[in-house]
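User: Before I run my own analysis I want an independent prediction to cross-check against. Here's the chain; please return only the structure tokens and, at the end, one sentence I can use as a sanity check.
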Amino acid sequence: MREKVLRDLASRAATDAGFLKQARRDLQDTLAGFGYDLTLEELRLVEDLRRRTAAMSDEQLARTLASGLRGGTGTPPARPAAPSWRGPGRAARPGG
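Assistant: Structure tokens:
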């Protein structure tokens, strides 16, 4: 999956009201018209987002996308540390 392409798409949708309105009406033709050639996986992700945000107004969706773009670092979150084999609050016992 190409994060740069998806971030560009989200950025355009967040800042170009006409693009967002058109994409919500006819996603496939809008993407093609603006030169986006998404993989099947990328298209599924965008379609899923479209379905999950269908009840939002264009303005709400644009704000949500913009907020996500500002908060993203482009790297996955760090994995939590594995718990100690001793478990919480247990001290090692001498001799096993």
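Sanity check: The chain has a mean pLDDT of 82.
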